Amino acid sequence: MKVFKFGGASVKDAASIKNVAGILSQFANEQVLVVVSAMGKMTNLMENLVHAYFYNNNNTSSILAEIRQFHYQILQELDDSSKMQLYNDVDNLLLELECMVENPNNLEDYDFVYDQIVCFGELLSTRIVSNYLVTQQTRNQWIDARNFIITDNCYRDGKIDWAKTEHIIANRLRPVAEKSLVITQGFIGRDSVNATTTLGREGSDYSAAVFAYCLNAESVTIWKDVAGVMNADPRKFPFATLIPELTYNDSIELAYYGASVIHPKTIQPLRAKNIPLFVRSFMDMDAAGTVVSNTAKSLDVACYIHKAPQVLFELSSRDFNFIVEDTLRGIFAMLAENKMRCGIMQNSAISFSFVTDVSETRIAKIKGQFENAGLNCKITEGVELLTVYNGVLAQTEKLTAGKQIYMQQSTGNTVHFVLG
Ligand code: ADP
Ligand code: ASP
Ligand code: MG
After folding, report:
1. For ligand 2, is residue 228 a contact (CB within 6 Å)?
2. Which of 32, 118, 207, 412 has the smallest C-beta neighbourhood within 10 Å, fewest atoms?
3. What is the dihedral of CA 3, 270, 175, 149, to 10 degrees?
């Protein structure tokens, strides 16, 4: 069995969905489970809706209208003969979402509310893809991923309950996927009280890997708008070239430091069962793309990873106490509690610095917590994290020229810069 994942860019409009149907038609004789993300930038719009709902700022109806309009536009373009068979499920989901947002209950935990709302992006996209395939005579089974991806209740950052997930996928989903093409959602799961959870932004690649692990799939293919994994993001570095093969090790390092073409959590389940990962272009079916596997040769090019914007935290001890094990334990506990991750970090006798992703709600909160714990906390927004993996220092001079270097770290074959 193969697992495919189509991300937002591959289903961003009607023409793209037709293209996905064309790709799937080439695998008509194989067992395939397809994981689909929300369409285009829909998750960002859902995030706006969560914000408007949570803070009661009266924008919910205009955002809901935009969400409805976006999906309707696609339906109209797909259903050019107006057979209307595409609309039912989508209408029901939109209605459910509208009712949810009219209800002022449940407004205690932002992350919980976030997951209950944002999941609609994936539910809508998969209904549209699945129903469109039916109109094209491609029989398929729409599956609610939340019945199979079982997580803890860490909203917005759900951790997979592997025992339960593996059991239910092997026993319940596998027989279905052996008989029919399956269309399901990435990014979403369910906890033990049946609330929706999400796996973190861009988490659909990871969902595909979880399904593949539990199904003992022969491979995972993530279909992207680029030729495969390149040695830099081609949108930012025009010199980027394709890396035809990558080891699990190299790919996990690249993804971890911000090569956003693969979600960092994707590799671990695949490596555990030696399942190869293909990263291929949905625009060019003839191109081989990149294969990540245990037989790949090690990287022979330098890779450039640019992550921006980032936020630099510089903590220092207010009373000249050393920042040692106890203080660090406190700092990491606060980071974990706020679901924040350090990009890179550096410490001295009385200071500790790190970079992290931008988060409107978390940064101010954790700053207060650090200050309450007796630390000075300086925040610099808008910095960039540049990582050169498998390179040498000399190759980085051009990239850092004219920029302020806040932090520089060199370990083995990797150099990191925090630049302003
Ligand atoms: P999806 O549609 O699955 O969400 P993403 O947008 O998350 O796809 O990933 C594809 C994008 O990743 C590309 O458009 C490219 O700009 C970016 N990218 C970042 N780093 C790399 C890299 N090293 N190689 C290829 N693409 C990269
Ligand atoms: N739709 C989600 C997001 O945009 C998950 C994904 O696309 O992988 O973050
Ligand atoms: Mg994405």
Report:
1. no
2. 412
3. -90
